[in-house]
Specification:
The protein is mostly beta strands. It is 7% helix and 31% strand. The chain has a 6-stranded mixed beta sheet with strand order 2-23-10-5-8-7, covered by helices on one side. Strands 19-18-17-16-20-21 form a 6-stranded antiparallel beta sheet. The longest helix has 11 residues, at 220-230. Residues 1-32, 38-42, 178-203 and 338-349 have low confidence and may be disordered.
């Protein structure tokens, strides 16, 4: 009996009202899978020639994108064929990541480049490959242990998050937008020809349409990521006990309103979250209400008055209403059928 394989897309259709959305032509529309065969020189196929990037919302030119084989097998390669002027691409056989970079380009130009990405396989591995498309010049961070969720993705571990260091030193309240009168329009300056700030004229941090917030740290792995981005600087985190003393809550991001620590230095983590206080912290000295990540003490936290400007890390991803900047595509890799002729069937030899 023949086996019939039916694969349903894991990602539903997305709203055309979102400012930046990545679509694949078969997601939610068809169960047909692209197929490539090996060996015999026929082991190359396009991943998705119908992929598009939604262009509503205006602005948001791009300077980079990533395509990844998340379950790479020996002999697999991704190739960006027919690159237009101003684009370059490189593939890492170690990570399975194809990195595409450019000067400032439109989303339509990037869609054309992504449509021409090919998967080549020279190994004998008849295993479906998962190909992941990610928009933007920053490779996302994934954390399977996080509690951060996003309705665009099936599980917290699939939520892509991005971290950018704010180019303007700010006080904690300003960075958290807790005091509207203190807020000025964020502006990260120009990165590869693209200006990153609230392009809609608001005070909202933006990256490819994702809303940004002062970083909230919820795991050891995320702490390490934030430390790398922050570098040799102090930085505020998005938490405070300004509402109720010694009841430390995240005030921004997906965890907004959630208590992560109760008490002073002898207190405890709450709600299964995470904290990295220094030895005697928090000490609530003179009613200190904000969380600061140190540069001098190994990156541990202390509570502090809102009296210093720091170059903070802004986090993106996991907020309701965010556009989808990552999709997965399944590509079938199969053995090429071989037909063997017996001597009796060779009637015209």
């Amino acid at each position: 009996m023949k086996k019939i394989w039916l694969f349903l897309g894991r990602v539903s259709l997305l709203s055309f009202l979102l400012p930046l959305v990545l679509y694949a032509n078969q997601i939610g529309l068809s169960t047909t899978l692209p197929v490539i065969y090996y060996p015999n020189g026929a082991s190359t196929g396009y991943v998705d020639t119908g992929i598009t990037i939604d262009n509503t919302g205006g602005g948001y030119n791009m300077t980079g994108s990533f395509v990844t084989i998340t379950n790479k097998q020996s002999g697999d390669t991704l190739v960006a064929s027919s690159l237009p002027s101003g684009f370059s691409a490189s593939y890492s056989s170690n990570t399975g990541i194809l990195t595409i970079t450019s000067s400032s380009k439109t989303r339509a130009e990037y869609a054309s480049v992504l449509q021409n990405v090919k998967l080549t396989s020279t190994g004998s591995y008849a295993t479906d490959r998962n190909i992941q498309f990610v928009l933007g010049h920053i490779y996302p961070y994934f954390d399977a242990n996080t509690m951060k969720t996003d309705p665009n993705y099936a599980s917290p571990g699939e939520v892509p998050r991005f971290y950018i260091k704010d180019g303007t030193a700010r006080r904690a309240r300003e960075a958290m937008n807790l005091s509207a009168s203190a807020v000025t329009k964020p502006n990260f300056g120009t990165i590869n020809g693209v200006v990153y700030h609230g392009v809609d004229g608001s005070t909202t941090y933006r990256y490819l349409g994702l809303k940004g917030y002062l970083v909230t740290v919820t795991s050891v792995a995320e702490e390490a990521k934030v430390s790398a981005v922050l570098g040799n600087d102090w930085g505020w985190l998005g938490g405070s006990d300004s509402q109720t003393e010694q009841n430390w809550k995240w005030h921004v991001g997906p965890e907004a309103g959630t208590t992560f620590w109760q008490g002073k230095s002898n207190g405890s983590v709450q709600n299964g979250l995470y904290a990295n206080w220094g030895g005697s912290q928090p000490d609530d000295s003179n009613g200190q209400d904000f969380v600061r990540k140190s540069k001098d003490w190994g990156g541990v936290w202390d509570d502090h008055d809102d009296d210093g400007n720091h170059y903070n890390v802004i986090e993106y991803g996991g907020l309701s209403g965010d556009p989808k900047v990552l999709v997965n595509k399944t590509v079938r890799v199969e053995n090429r059928p071989v037909i063997a002729l017996s001597a009796a069937s060779n009637a015209y030899a």
